[in-house]
Amino acid sequence: MASNKQKQLVLCILDGLGIGSQTETNAVFQADTPNLDKLVSDYPTCQLQASGPAVGLPDNQPGNSEVGHLTIGSGRVIEQDLPRITKALTNNFLNKSNELADFIASLKKTGGAAHILGLLSDGGVHSHIDHICIFTKHLIQHDIPVYIHITTDGRDTAQNSSASYLSILKKNCPSKATVATVIGRYFSMDRDQRWERTQIAYDLIKYGKAKHYCSTPEQAIRDAYKRGETDEFIKSTSIANYRGLAPCDGIFMANFRVDRVRQIMSSFYTPEETDIQTYDEFKPSIGLAMTPLSDTLNNKIPYLFAPTNLSNGLGETISNSGMTQLRLAETEKYPHVTFFFNGGVEKAFEGELRELIASPKVATYDLQPEMSAKFLLKSAIKAIKNHAVDVIIVNFANPDMVGHTGDLKAAITAVETVDKCVKSLIENIEENNGILIVTADHGNCDIMWDEIKKIPHTAHTTNLVSFSIVGASIDNLSDGTLADIAPTMLDLLNIKKPNEMSGISLINKPI
Fold first, then answer.
1. Is the predicted pLDDT of residue 3 greater than 70, yes or no?
2. DSSP strand E in 368-430: where?
3. Which of 105, 228, 229, 451 registers the highest number of CB atoms within 10 A of its CB?
4. Distance of CA 349 to the CA centre of its chain
5. Are 289 and 151 in contact (CB under 8 A)?
6. CATH number assigned to the domain comprising residue 136
């Protein structure tokens, strides 16, 4: 139960809802949003940076849900994995890493090949093509045969851009490296327990079993476009004479963001704990990952880059104060309000409750842009009315997940859906004398059309996000960054900010 000393505080994250230009292709502007408009006109509101160096990313790099929740939850600017890894790879890391040396030594001993799995993209959200090229070169230099299993993007990049990334790969990798398979991220990077999608990617990589067979990866992409498939949805394609994994082979996962590779990697190394159907008993002889995959997989797959220590974040600080908290999200964003929000810690803190609402089982979320928002709202309102916990953190996934489809009409519906949810949250917070914060982690549906390429825009944006407070006795707020949200919440909770938090409260204090 919540304490009686403090107003209940609710943090509502509208995932992917940025502040964009007032254009016909900005779903936020085009949507009917009386309640979001009311937040800006009637309550203390400011704007936050959610991209680039403000959240530990390179200049002009859009934010994303992982980075956003890490930054919000930790209350500090963290050098994110993309720049951290890129910097390390230019500073002789390859020759210093014991894990990489062990991976190479093991494959030399078994006589096996390295199978590099990765998202071929410069989107920088899950991976980077430069990293794939660097590791491929290094393995070839050590006489390790390399098979590259391309996952095409089309979500954090333009929908039909994979041919250009393939050209970069071919230009920057030794000719001895073989592109073995091509498949869209819809299949190989599922995180929503859609094991039928993961099965398709697993069968392709392990057995060479595919929907289509082509002589070259270039032909695979051309044929996919002729079939009307965009990069995200390219059907499984086996290249040339690829025959699958051998027991002596190893897998290197080149993606550094883990939430969308856990299922496929679990399929190879812990299939007994998945819904994957296997046709033999062997597992790859060795594995290697960029970053820690999960508590279970870390025991089987070494990783190259240890996580940054993010102690004394918001969740831990609330817990240490003796207060209780509820994390609430649907499947697509559940890791973000738990694992990422807690700084990469899977285990809940003392007094931290979690509730997972299942995302709808549809092929793409433009088919059901409302997603599971009404069920999330119901749980949040119940916790508010019961004053069940001191702090509620709830994520509404609609603007981001529907924004990624590139469907403007559906994105407008998604925005209008969360607008109605905000209305209910405001009403219930005011009725129950609580405090509500409404913000976002990054932009997405605020740009739905690429004016240069004249195609739907499916990626995140670098736009600012809004931050509003309802129910607190404050006059105004200062603009800031996502790192300032946690200190602001602690300010409202009358909890001292830990020294580790570099963010500052957005609440303007009277002089």
1. no
2. 391-396
3. 229
4. 22
5. no
6. 3.40.1450.10
Separation between Cα atoms, residue 174 and residue 194, nearest integer Å? 35
Q: Which of 460, 484, 475 is nearest to 508 (CA)?
A: 475
With b meaning 16 or more CB within 10 Å and e meaning fewer, what string describes 252-266?
Answer: bbbbbbbbbbbbbbb
51 and 149 belong to one structural domain? no
b/e code 370-390 from CB counts within 10 Å (16+ = b) = bbbbeebbeebbebbeebebb
pLDDT on residue 196: 98
56 is written with which tokens?
């530990």
Listed residues 258, 275, 299: the one ending a domain? 299
What pTM does this model have?
0.92
Q: What average pLDDT score do residues 209-222 get?
A: 98
Residue 339 lies in a domain: yes
Domain of 473 in residue numbering reads as 9-79+308-493
Positions annotated as catalytic residues are 65
- Domain assignment of residue 402, yes or no: yes
pLDDT tens string 30-82 = 999 999 999 999 999 999 999 999 999 999 999 999 999 999 999 999 999 99
Residues β-bridged to residue 470: 436
Burial (CB < 10 A; 0-12, 13-18, 19+), residue 211, is middle
476 with 431, same domain: the answer is: yes
Are residues 392 and 477 located together in one domain of the fold? yes
What domain count does the chain have? 2
The model's pLDDT over 236-271, given as tens digits with 9 standing for 90+, comes to 999 999 999 999 999 999 999 999 999 999 999 999
Query: Whose structure tokens read 């602001």?
Result: 488
Q: In terms of domains, do 73 and 150 share one?
A: no
